[in-house]
Input
Amino acid sequence: MSSPTDTAAGPAAAPKPTRIAPIVTPDAKSFWAAADEEKFVGQKCGDCGQFTFPPRPMCPHCHSLKREEVELSGFGTVHSWTIPRHPHPFGFKEAPVVAVIQLDEGIRMVSNVIGIAPEDVKMDMAVEVTFDATMNNHKVPVFRPRAK
Amino acid sequence: MARTFTEAAIAGIGATEFSKESGRSELQLAAECSLAACEDAGVNPHDIDGMITFTIDNSDEIGLARCLGVKDLAYTTRIPGGGAAAAATIYQAMALVNAGLCNNVLIWRAMNERSQYRFGQNPNNMQGYTGGHGTGSLLWCIPYGAMTPASWGALQGARYMHTYGISNRDLGYLAVQQRAYAATNPKAWFYERPITLEDHQNSKWIQEPWLRLLDCCQESDGGVAILVTSLERARDLKQPPVKIVGACQSIPYNVEVISNYYHDDLTIMPEAWGTAKRLYAQTGMKPTDMQAAMIYDAFSPQVLMQLEAFGFCGKGEAAEFIKSGAIAIDGQLPINTHGGLAGEAYIHGMNSMAEGVRQVRGSSVNQVKDVTNVLVSSGMASAIFSKA
Output
């Protein structure tokens, strides 16, 4: 368990991101490293081909230790969502839309839906991945309404 | 002692006052409630031979044993999963007695969870979400602004509420009933402070549009302890014995505590369905055998989902069940008669276990008539307490 280390400083003029950087565990390192490069990857078993999330060292289906990091479609739907009003979440100017995203690959992750008014968020709405900057020059996958 | 199967019973319960600022250390709260449980039972604390608490309790077994003068501790264990541990402590104490490994098992949970730190606020230390507490996936929520138990609980309840068309106002009936119970319980923080449905609807959003303030448990200081021994021995002690007829745990694949978003069907709590099935199979009992239930109520939707899992009503019917008056004192199944974690105090579910004991003894301030069996649940674990 370690916090990500700082990399190169961002452009001087841009406002500094205030979102908390992910806490990187050894088994999730490649997920977050890819996100820094704006790549959205998932863990797929190198033997039986099934996806798992959160990342883990062993496939629960065939017990293979062969992990493959594969780029995901980035498409999914909003499976659950909420707006944290109180206390105001640290690192956000406006209360974010927090959502459980059901990815097309059949796995789920917690993220944000951005670029939408809270009253327009709907269960099962189609979303696609994009990236948002965090403190310490990292990036995390977030989702926006899917372009038609 | 002989390692033969031994029936287990609860012989003592003890608690400190429930407050927002205890003014003393968590270890002192632990010692006070533990002593109270021993005195309630008529057992000398020196004779405790087993100790059980939650992984996240800050007091060491050794520290508490040194306060109580425990002479020879045969077994200690800690249970992960935050409040899910509440009924699991009963389960493990029962198992220790059943196995003939311990005679006097002390369960405790004591915390200054309002004055010293606050579960309900944004975390100031991410180390709380490291491994060993059964809450590791919370790390995946933090960068997205889901930083509090209410945010995690809302994400868990939202799909259920959406699927069955349950509004936030519908949840209000649970809050009103629990606060009505608390209002007549002198030990409750909200003693003599009942609420109306309008109060509920006027309380601020915590998680819009799912949870208002009055759908959330409190933050509390206090301690609760329970003493478990053999049924045979309990019969010779001070209180009428409360038999642990059965107790169990269930953690189905891909289920976890609170950041519980990875299993197939988010309209149910698979862990509660699992523990219900196992508990009824173990005891040969059924929902209609219960005269009361204590259901872990961190957030209202989780109470509804547990009522359905234990078969007290059908899937998606819990809101109507509650609205119909079924959980009132003269209803089909009175629940959380101490006021729940929302009304009495949030001692991580252990005060609800204690209320289950009082209902069987017949000593609750909101006593249900003719109680023989009470079901207690903390989601991943459950137990049935019965008159011996």
The domain at 147-217+247-379 of chain B is CATH 3.40.47.10 (Peroxisomal Thiolase; Chain A, domain 1). DSSP finds twelve helices and eleven strands in chain B.
